[in-house]
Amino acid sequence: MKKISLFIVFFTCGLVAYTRPIKIKDALTLISPNGEISVLIQNIKGLKYSVQYKGNTILVNNKIDLVIAGKQSLSNISQSITSLTRNTVNSNIQVPVSERRKNILDNYNELIIQFKGHYSLHFRAYDNGVAYRIGTSFQDSIYIQNETAQFNFANATEGWLPIIHKREDSDIFHTSYEEAYPLLKLDSLTSNDLAYNPVLLAPTNSPKIAITESDLLDYPGMFLQGTGANALQGKFAPYPAQEFTTNELYPETLVSKRENYIAHVAGKRTYPWRIMMIAPEDKDLPNNDLVYQLATPNKIGDVSWVHSGKGTDEWIININLFNIPFKPGINTATYKYYIDFAKRFGFDRIMMDAGWSDIKDLFKITPGINMDTLSAYAKEKGIKISMWTAAVTLNKQLDSALNQFNKWGIDFIMTDFIDRDDQKTVQFYETIAKACAKHKIMIMYHGAYPPKGFNRTYPNAITREGVMGSEYNIWSTKVTPSHDLTLPFTRMLAGSFDYEPGFLNNANKASFRNIEGAPISFGTRSHQLAMFVVFDNPMQIFSGNPSQGYQEPSFMELLGSIPTGWNDTKILAATVSKNIITARRKGNDWYIAGMNDWDAIDQNIKFDFLEAGNYTATICKDGLNADKYAADYEITSQKMNNKSVLNIHNAPGGGFLIKLIKE
To answer: What does pTM read for this prediction?
Structure first.
């Protein structure tokens, strides 16, 4: 067949139509705007594609298929093409609630293949990755029995993959999405090894490749299964056939039996994007916006009431306050104390975590709490209240609970213990987000899969968990500096996460202990402070002890001044699991933060990215003795400009923060 090379620029498309079906003989090719990435699509014993970077094949013969009950599969009809459409798009996406930046450049080349038999395949090539999705156009609803998504690496590969550990009371697809990211040889993984995405792969003689998805709506999420070779295979949770709700303190809905299909959907739709981010340098990864770019735009209309913020949480420290004239606990006096703390140090809200009500009934308020009093006090102080809910309970009492939250002036809630991403559960996320939007309430999901673009579609779903974060310091030794330094290159690729940093008790390897009520973090105090800049989250939560915070006002004033919604982000240096330096701009001011693993590091930081002019710098860095006493830090000030160079020494598990205010 003839080579097609028609490109029309900026949202218009060139359509090449044929009067008889086209047979794929030679590969159809799609090339990225800068010419460095190319996709070759072929039909050789099924529909397959390969990806090249600078002429070298990095992914080879990845099979694509969709199997629908009672219909021919995509692979069976893929030889018959009715039309090809090529587009070039070069535009900007305005981000209403910014995480990394207010404007995202959206520049790609696209190939849409329409097959005879109600299937289509959409490929996009960007300068930093490749994505594809399947489309169907059947008149009636259909049952998807399976989707094939293969990722075959051309070279020996290792990678950082969060392998699921099955619970005894549930099936393998039940997970809180809170696993570590160990570095594993890909060919050591078998079909018994299942990871959720994103995952990051490091083939030999190749850029790093991250695999994830976007626009996950009304469809199960994609897990990645080992194959015993340098390949991963997509796997999807079948639709729930039978469920039961546990009778534990924190109830969950578990699946006891599953159907023989993965989804029952409208016949006319597109399916989630399968994304391969391509990163020649490690620092290219934390700034990759493909997941957001590929998501469905805002579905809820006006979002002027949705905004970033910073709050407190009391659950991790078990409300272990001191130097106070009352007994701390789940009571009005304690939450007034948190409101006062938030007001004093520049936070705009507090969280009332699990326990403010009966966990199974949101209208049974815990004795000792007067919500009317707290609501009035918070309003007087200009502080918002956020509230925790169990997902099972919120779903049962949704309309009445949201009405009550409105009466109390609550504009942000958390719902917890979801722990699944089959189609029925993904539908639940939309149900909750839509209901909250009607009440102008922001929502954060805990025990939840990564956002995968959901925050673009529902901007009020402002953040979520899906990460092993601070709470694990209570009972484990898993949240190490190396773990912290893996997250920006793995979990964060799919959207923001609620890590809840800010521990004021800090330890090195030898001095770390699990202490309930007074938890300690691995790494230095400045390492904890840096997380507020390094980790994407437009609704950061401080989980340290406010009674300790009052004893260190200069440190808390600096922490409280850090914004959470940014105009721009730059990654100045990065090595996966080793170190990172992130620079973020808010207005004319910049915040630069760095973190490292257990290896101490000296870094020369150049500020040539700044605009001309003078800046007042406030610098918080590891203290002279932070290698032994991890809570040791030093705060200094100096003048800087875009010709300045600053040398900073980071202790083992260390970090720093530089706040630059333009004069």
So the answer is: 0.95
